[in-house]
Amino acid sequence: MKKFGFTLAEVLITLGIIGVVAAMTIPTLITSYKEKQTVSQLTKIYSMLASAYQMMTVEYGPVNTWGLNPTNTGMIDEDTGKTIYDKSGNDIIAERLRKYLRVSKICEAGKVCFPWASYNIAGDKLTEANGIISETTDTAPSSNFFLQDGTFIGMGWYNGGSSSALVWGTIYVVLPNAKDNILGKTKFYFRYNAKGLFPTGAKDDPEIFSFENGCDPSKHTNSSGQHCTAWVIYNKNMDYLHCHDKLSWEGAHSCKEAE
Predict the structure, then answer these.
(1) Helix or strand or coil: residue 61?
(2) Given a cut of 80, is residue 53 above it in pLDDT?
(3) What is the C-alpha to C-alpha distance for residues 160 and 74, in angstroms, rounded to an integer?
(4) Exposed, middle or buried, 154 (CB in 10 Å: 0-12/13-18/19+)?
(5) pLDDT bracket for residue 11 (50, 70, 90)
(6) How far is it, in rounded angstroms, from Cα 255 to Cα 143?
(7) Which position has the higher pLDDT, 150 or 207?
(8) In this structure, is the dihedral angle defined by the CA atoms of residues 225, 216, 223 and 69, taken in order, positive or negative?
(9) What stretches of 61-141 show up as alpha helix (H) in DSSP?
């Protein structure tokens, strides 16, 4: 009786084909898994922050009634020529917001708190280490803190004003275990006003918070990637990284829909 089997050449060819297929598919699978993980993490963080913000305003009233100073003072430092910022309002908001969050660490002046580099969504490095807390007057150390799950919370801009229609501010988060804070990938922005806290880049957001202008990987600006948050939370994907020019709130909400 004759015995049939594979030759060594046939085995090697088969293994080579399997290797090529694996090399082509595994990176895609890993990327897809990481993006789904980001969607889950960001959705959870939004729920926590929105709930904490609501409880804060129930106790203290809407932020426009607090008499806080706006971040931009409109003044210039005569010695350095740089704009003078007032972060006192951010400190107060952060202090009151922390009462309703599980905080593990509050940043301190003169100590490294967040040593990772910062990038926009296009991959351009913005700073060597965005988030290092110093003793300079333009930082507000206690406005930045970590939650127990490793999420970094930072207070952005506070617009000020006593009218509920005019007041707004921003809060950003860096997801747990992120080695770099990359806008639209690991770092995401939320905006707040008298009505509550919301992810930026939603359908009806004003132009300064719009998805079209603030979540385009082809734009090499410091703010590129700031307003991807609403897309991730509401559409449950990060497809703007792959086919941004085919997506819109009025049209396709995923690359698959755009095909």
Answers:
(1) coil
(2) yes
(3) 12
(4) buried
(5) low
(6) 38
(7) 150
(8) negative
(9) 88-98
pLDDT at residue 259 greater than cutoff 60: yes
Predicted confidence (pLDDT) per residue in 213-234, tens digit: 899 999 998 889 999 999 999 9
Q: Would you state the structure tokens that stand for residue 65, as one six-digit string?
A: 């009634």
Residues with Cβ within 8 Å of residue 107, at least 6 apart in sequence: 113, 114, 133, 141, 142, 143, 144, 145
Residue partners of 15: CB distance under 8 A and separation at least 6: none
At 142, list the tokens: 């206690």
DSSP letter (8 states) at residue 222: T
Which among 30, 45, 36 has a CA at the least distance from the CA of 187? 45
pLDDT grade, residue 134 (50/70/90)? very low
Residue 181 CA to its chain's centroid (Å): 8
Chain mean position to CA 212: 16
Mean pLDDT of 49-74: 91
More confident site: 103 or 33:
103
> What's the whole-number mean pLDDT along residues 111-115?
74
State how far the Cα of 112 lies from the Cα of 192, in Å rounded to an integer. Answer: 28
Q: How far apart are CA 255 and CA 259, in angstroms?
A: 6
How far apart CA 95 and CA 118 sit, in angstroms, is 25
Size (the chain), residues: 259
